[in-house]
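During the first year of the project, the team set up a workflow for recording each protein of interest as an amino acid sequence followed immediately by a discrete structure-token representation. This format lets reviewers and collaborators read both layers of information side by side without switching files. As required by the reporting guidelines, we include two representative entries from the current panel. The first entry is reproduced here exactly as it appears in our internal archive.
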Amino acid sequence: MSITLPQLSASIVFPPSEQALKHPDGLLAWGGDLSTERLLAAYQRGIFPWCSANEPLLWWTPSARMVLQFQHLHISHSLKKQLRKIQRNPLGSRQVRIDTAFTDVMRACAGKRQHQEGTWIAEDFIQAYTQLHNQGYAHSVELWEDEQLIGGLYGVSIGKMFYGESMFSHQTDASKITLVFLMYYLALQGVYLVDCQQETPHLTSMGGACIPRQSFEQHLQLVCPQAPIQWQKGFVCPDILDSTTPIAALA
């Protein structure tokens, strides 16, 4: 039996998530554009764009959503050692910063990786999310060493919700360091759940787990209308790692 996938029109209207395909899981529609209005409408409903090279723009809402919850965040012994070093020397060679190199982070995430033939972060995605960033809806967390960008992540922020998009590392655990800082930074503002879209071994090792799509959508209905997260551009004081339970045992 053939299935006709809905094509998005000029109007910013998405099909109900219940109509998403089971194979491939979560594929909801195709077409449309990456305008700020469409992206914001999509994310608030738990929908995100993703496509490979030479494919049309595809929109997804997986039946099982990978999320990282603060209370389940796992920090390995080796990662704790690296975090302690940053805490002890906050103005040293390694610093965590916010929103000082958003497009550079995206381009680093788009770089060819081992065992990958290409990337879904094409130039049109970079332009669209940079526009989101310029309007205050997309943010980056970066790890710098001797003024060189060695790791980071970026994502979308709506209300009290953060949707993680991608991360990169040029040194061991660099992206994990930025993710831990992000989780604490958000927890200080009452944000305890971050969207990770799809399951990966990397995120599972840090405590990520899948929840049903319906539960995820219910969470979005609660947190997206709330006052937005406050983002402080520049240097992030590592003292935030001792500011919030349950993971204060870094010392």
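The second entry, processed by the same pipeline in the following quarter, appears below.
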Amino acid sequence: MSLPPKDGHFDPFAILTPRLILIPTPVAINVNSYRALYASLHADVHFCSMAFGDHFPARNWDDAQTRTVIQTRDIDRSWNRHHVGDFAVGLRGPAHSDDTTTTGSILTDDAFTRFAGDNLEQIQWVGYAGVRDATTTSLPAADAADADAVGLPPWQEMVELRYGISSQFWGGGIAKEAAEAVMGWAVDARGVRRFIAETERGNSRSGRLLQKMGFGLSGTDYWKEPSEVEWELVVQ
């Protein structure tokens, strides 16, 4: 099981799936090749339109800006609050093809070093997947600031699932594999009891993906955006 940050130090760990390695962004932020991938996603007009809608146009961030975005939006607002957040999603390459580590296992300490070691820059990063407390990250500011007054559940039941995969890998099941791995970790390591998500109404691809993972329409109006559809999955 992964450990939360202590005194500003984050113990690195990884989640493995049959095809993927997932690294939390407090580690991945220092990987040049991942920052480059993250920036390229948000510079892709098609990706931004599908993922975020027209209100979030593509942006051309330099490396310093990319690092700042990851630090402020994910590490400061997610990992440093409830020890949940985004994971960099990479492909397990030929060097790991003979690895017998149990799928879905968490690698920490020496196991992480043996598996990933100094090879993080060589991994082919394809996107991100994460879970975060929506009340501190993405809900309208008024509701987030006064969660109790508006009757929101505790944060373990307001955990937003998010993912973004490079368009060249769409349709291959990578988003589902990564999202399910992160959700499993969140339940086991952080006690999450309910996941929520939102998709743009025109993004039927993400809607179908959420349904495959067991999400259903929630009927909530957390984000208060007519252009968005809201979903939920209660942990059984």
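For the second entry, the following points were noted during internal review. The radius of gyration is 17 Å. Strands lie at 13-16, 20-24, 86-91, 106-108, 124-133, 159-165, 194-200, 216-217, 228-234. Both points are flagged for discussion at the upcoming steering committee meeting.
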